[in-house]
Amino acid sequence: MRPFRRLWAVLGLASFGDWLSLFATAGFAQSLFDDMAAKGFAFSGTIILRLFPSLVFGPIAGVFADRFDRRKTMAVCDLVRFALIASVPTVYIATGSVPLTVTWLAIAQICIEITVLVWTPTKEAAVPNLLPPEKYETANQLSLATTYGIAPPLAFGILAALERGSAIWSDVGIWAQPMVIALYIDAAMFLTLAITVYFFIPEISGRSGAPRVKGASVWSEFLEGWRYVRTTERVKGLIYGMLGAFSGAGILIGSGTVYAGTLGAGDAAFYILAVFLFLGLGAGIAAGPRLIGELSRLRWFGMSIVLAGAGLALDAVAPWLWVALLGAVIIGLGAGMAFLAGITLLQKEVGDEIRGRIFGFIAVSARVILMVSMTIAAPLVGWQAARQLDLGVAVINISMSRILLFAAAALVVWLGITAFRNMDDKPGVPVLADLWSSLRGRPLSAAVPTDSKGYFVAFEGGEGAGKSTQAVKLAAWLKLRGYEAVLTREPGATDIGMRIRTLLLDTGGDSAPDPRAEALLYAADRAQHVDKIIRPALERGAVVVTDRYIDSSIAYQGSGRSLGKGEIAWVSAWATGGLKPDLTVLLDVEPEDGLHRAKAGGEGDRLEQEQLEFHQKVRQTFLDLAEAEPKRYLVIPAGPTVDEIAHTVREAVAERLDIRTEATRTETAWPGLDTDNSQWNNVAEEAGRP
Ligand SMILES: Nc1ncnc2c1ncn2[C@@H]1O[C@H](COP(=O)(O)OP(=O)(O)OP(=O)(O)O)[C@@H](O)[C@H]1O
Ligand SMILES: Cc1cn([C@H]2C[C@H](O)[C@@H](COP(=O)(O)O)O2)c(=O)[nH]c1=O
């Protein structure tokens, strides 16, 4: 951790130095001219010059990070920056020539940017080697906060202080001009960085990936980086997502000033929007991970991009400034979280030997996409006169800038969804339920992959509803139709389950389990049941018929015992690895009638002895579960006879089996039908056994 702390200090100083050098050189260039227009041109020209090297040199800059010793590469880059930054004011002081100084400044700017292009991916590639993977996210939070939250205000603060202070020492000489001093301070800082990196963080030299192939050309290494991006699905998804977010940002910046005008909130609107955007960005980076807790980072990445797109869409239609500000915060939140998640995932996914090229590729593509989308958006915004849409409550000015924002929103949402689909590590787990559970501290677990060729039917209902009777009948009928039918039940289908059943349902003694213990015992029985009986049977292609499953826990423990339906559903989903029945047959009976049937004059087990009110809550919960998912449930009221109900169940199962499953027809022996022979014979006759 100590090397990382040093690297983090280096990173903080370097980003401070970068901001300072960018604005000090621009300010210095400006100070060389008296004419206002020339001043403006000098300032923006100096900044624009910085963008060109990305296009030419950017694509291969990352190769350096993978090719050479990273510590030496960083130290050399820092030394070069020291020399270049110090040379700019020195040339002016030594020659006093404005044309010469401007020419040298332009050359120096390009060279400085080249060193930044090499330094940045080198640093990004080095960080994962100094930390355990579980610390990457926090480290990225720290470095992003330093780069965008602490370094810029500090740099601007120093520049402002020097400008103000120069009034006191203005007559001392050229060397005491504020921007000259700023450039010398900046140069000194890069010298310090070079020394620190070279002598005090030797760990940066360490490598963890496969050794580099000696003799490979820069070009072939560059192409290898490209191939890696194209052929590695997750990395491709990450990069597309991040670049999509940058294109949205470019369109937002390019159309920002004109868009701000459509809000009718004065000239300051653009700057206020920018402030809110950055506030959202900071909040997303600082608080995002804590907010989403254990949510899958792969899912979080795609969701964050979609959130940023939603913010853009909101801005596109915002009729008032406050709505637009809300949109800006949402864009910032989404972009900040996507950026953090994206970088952290890339550090984990990409091997050390190629990491520099990948980060170099992202840095360059981001710049290019930002520039291209800004350049396209800027002239387009003024293309057509604005029209007005009167909504009654508000009038929206539909300008080209809003249309562009909407197009950007659509693009970003699409890329977010595509990235989500390509990278989802919890297929089958509902997205919103997973997000909601994660916000509450309990992400849903990914379903355990089951190669199910079979079909899974569960019978549910209150006491005495007729579940056991119907389960036996269905299993026997299926068997006679040639299916391998596995008849099973909860609790107590396995050896461990039988022991748990005794603990749960025995009425003797005063050792009844506490409600939470009871819930966990049912979950434990179910985990064993699924693992030992249900899942293997489904994988063989059998039809599994179970007498009770998850819904019983939700109804009895979640509702009857008031432990919370959501909590119990979550525990059960975890215990079963997310395995749900294909069909749940709910036999609905009035609790009084069912209990009467079940007890058959006896005392009944521990749960059957509960109050009527308990059983009424249980019944209602079963009905609610069925209502929420009508396609997966068949609800049969208690009225009809045993045979009539059996007929309805068979019809439903037959229809679904033919259409939806590959359940195999076999002539194997009856597997574990634990019922008496008379019942079996009756069913066999009914089923038309030859
Ligand atoms: N449709 C029906 N009409 C009348 N009696 C029925 C009907 N279905 C089942 N029974 C009878 O009700 C009693 C309980 O049936 P069964 O054991 O199948 O119910 P269950 O839902 O499995 O009960 P438990 O929840 O106690 O396990 C049995 O005596 C059975 O014969
Ligand atoms: C699976 C399951 C069951 N129960 C209760 C419901 C019944 O009272 C008994 C099981 O008895 P049965 O005669 O075998 O139906 O256990 C429960 O409370 N929670 C559950 O998850």
Helix tally equals 25
- By CATH, the superfamily of the largest domain comes out as P-loop containing nucleotide triphosphate hydrolases
Q: What is the number of domains? A: 3
The parts where pLDDT drops under 50 for at least 5 residues are 667-677
Biggest sheet strand line-up: 4-5-3-6-7
Shape: elongated
Ligand names: adenosine-5'-triphosphate, the ligand Cc1cn([C@H]2C[C@H](O)[C@@H](COP(=O)(O)O)O2)c(=O)[nH]c1=O
Distance between the termini: 77 Å
Number of strands: 7
Classify the helix fraction into a percent range. Answer: 55-70%
Sheet with the most strands, sense and barrel status: 5 strands, parallel
- What percentage of the residues does DSSP assign to strands (E)? 5-15%
Find the structural class using helix and strand composition: mainly alpha
Question: Average pLDDT, to the nearest integer?
Answer: 86
CATH class of the largest domain: Alpha Beta
The value of Rg in angstroms is: 34 Å
Name given to the CATH architecture of the largest domain = 3-Layer(aba) Sandwich
The CATH topology of the largest domain turns out to be: Rossmann fold
Pfam families: MFS_1, Thymidylate_kin
InterPro entries: MFS, MFS_trans_sf, P-loop_NTPase, Thymidylate_kin-like_dom, Thymidylate_kin_CS, Thymidylate_kinase
Protein name: Thymidylate kinase
Binding site for ATP: 461-468
